[in-house]
Amino acid sequence: MKKAFIFDLDGVIVDTAKYHFMAWQNLANSLGISFSKEQNEQLKGVSRVQSLEKILDWGNKTISEEEFTRLLSEKNEEYLKYISKMDTTEILPDVPRILDYLISKRQRIALGSASKNARAILEKVELYTKFHTIVDGTNVSKAKPDPEVFLIGAKELEASPENCIVFEDSVAGIQAANTANMISIGIGDKEVLHEADYIFKNFTEITEEFINQLVKTEKA
Ligand code: BG6
Ligand code: MG
Predict the structure, then answer these.
(1) Is the pLDDT of residue 1 over 90?
(2) In what order do the strands lie in the sheet with 108-112?
(3) Which of 28, 44, 67, 93 could serve as a FRET partner for 210 with CA atoms 20 to 30 Å apart?
(4) Cα distance between residue 158 and residue 106, in whole Å
């Protein structure tokens, strides 16, 4: 059976979740809206448009369509400023070890991200060529928790959903993987990601034995 290992990008491969947070906070502040770290968990994995909708909702604010579009590009411009300075030092601990181990075991690897900036970020941190396929915010019509992004990844790697393993740092992403009937691995806080099949603080906790076990198991 063909396996597919699908990685989210922001907060899993690179430490960009903090940049999204900073850019959204600055934008919210400019509108007189404040939101907490806990609320920010709800923005992780979620598309740019839906993130802004949530923030406006928290602030009980309605704005024109034009203003909405303007704010979206303002947020992205600030985010692009942060990522333009990125280099390989922003790859999260042990991500290359796991990717290289999977490659050495001839496993297939996909990116499954909501971000429209995914390809540019992978180039910046020199990980682009590690992926057999990249599915990102430019390829999907439905945002996580909808499983579309992971189902496309599975199809492109010719693996059935039960044979897919998803690494995610967001609640929406774990829900998407579970809905797709894939094995979900949470990377981050176990209280936040409790719906995942397995949870690790980061990749340094993931052993080669665990990967070998995943290669052999199918989602029940
Ligand atoms: C996800 C992030 O990966 O991508 C979200 O977790 C972000 O925070 C989403 O909103 C869309 O990203 P971008 O780069 O297209 O604005
Ligand atoms: Mg993420």
Answers:
(1) no
(2) 133-135, 108-112, 4-7, 164-168, 183-187, 198-200
(3) 44
(4) 14
Enumerate the domain spans of the chain: 4-15+88-216, 17-83
Residue of the CA atom closest to atom 2 of ligand 1: 45
Supply the Cα-derived Rg of the chain in whole angstroms: 17
Q: What is the pTM of this model?
A: 0.96
The answer, yes or no, to whether residue 220 has pLDDT greater than 80, is: no
Domain 17-83, what architecture?
Orthogonal Bundle (1.10)
- Dihedrals φ, ψ of 175, to 5°? -65, -40
From the CA of 23, which ligand is nearest?
1
* The pair of three-digit structure tokens given for residue 129, joined into one six-digit string: 């060529």
pLDDT digits (tens, 9 = 90+) for 110-120: 999 999 999 99
> What confidence tens digit (pLDDT) does each residue in 81-108 have?
999 999 999 999 999 999 999 999 999 9
Distance CA 122, CA 132 (A): 13
Half-sphere exposure of 24 (CA within 13 A, CB side): 28
CB-based contact 125:88 (threshold 8 Å): yes
Active site residues per annotation: 8, 10
pLDDT on residue 217 = 86
